[in-house]
Design brief:
This protein is an alpha/beta fold and 170 residues long. 29% of the residues lie in helices and 19% in strands. It has seven helices and seven strands; from the N terminus they run βαααβαβαββββαα. It starts with a strand and ends in an 11-residue tail after the last helix.
Amino acid sequence: MNIIKGSARIIGDEVSTDIHCSSKYLPGKDATYIATVAFEQVAPGFAKAFNKGDVIVAGKHFGINSSREQAVHVMHRMGVSAIIATSFGRQFYRNAINNGLPVIECDISGIVAGDALEIDLVAGRIAVTAKNITRAVPPLPATVRTLLEAGGLIPFLQKHPDWNVGGEAA
């Protein structure tokens, strides 16, 4: 999972995943259904045009006010491989990592819908090679990459039941 490749799918600023990826607003609906209509209010047709492996490219404050892990579960159902945004809501950012979804903050200027993206989590690079766009970003720390590779915090802890906060076996 150190290299992620996918097509850019653009969404705007100030997207609250509490509204756009939550069963709170669709009583009785599950994550599978919500994945088919996610973000409809801010980008009509977004979920229908989304292909497994695509990358969400968002403006500032993606996931603002979101404390619901369900939003990340919905994006997993959509097949989101990563999210690149100018900035993230902090709770959403942590929920994404805890649930195995790579999130990267960077300048998104020049990236348009359909651009083929390559994200290198180790080197800290996002590239649109067809446009000769390369952005340096801070590489994700090894511990974060380990959580992402495991599928998130809970799967990691299930695979490593003796792990403790110091990172050593108990």
